[in-house]
Design goal:
The protein starts with 8 loop residues before the first helix and ends with a helix. The chain contains seven helices and no strands. The protein is elongated, with a radius of gyration of 21 Å. It folds into two domains: 43 residues; 59 residues, Orthogonal Bundle (434 Repressor (Amino-terminal Domain)), CATH 1.10.260. With 119 residues, the protein is mainly alpha-helical. One of its GO terms (molecular function) is core promoter sequence-specific DNA binding.
Length: 119
Amino acid sequence: MDIRPIRTEPDYEAALDEIASLMGDDPLLGTPEGDRLDVLTTLVQAYEAQHHPVPPPDPIEAIKFRMEQQGLTVADMKPYIGPPHRVYEVLARKRSLSLAMIRRLHRGLGIPAESLIGP
């Protein structure tokens, strides 16, 4: 098994191509191909974390996404944000989320607190 560190974008692209090829064969864990896939995936994840970090989601977009996922309306947000006018203000970015709102959204809707806090 000749595996090298991923240091450049061409190395990264080659590793992705090889991962796609290996996944097409659906190798079993513990086989040479399965081990190769496991190691390449780990290397790609490390490279992506360093060179292609995914920024945290925007807090308002995270709320809108959860509302869409769960089919929630502005009225449904009352226990988490407050009266409808306040929900509209928050969603329109005219009012910031308070710490109490963040806690209620996290506990009640399962939105990660780090997503609600924002950068």
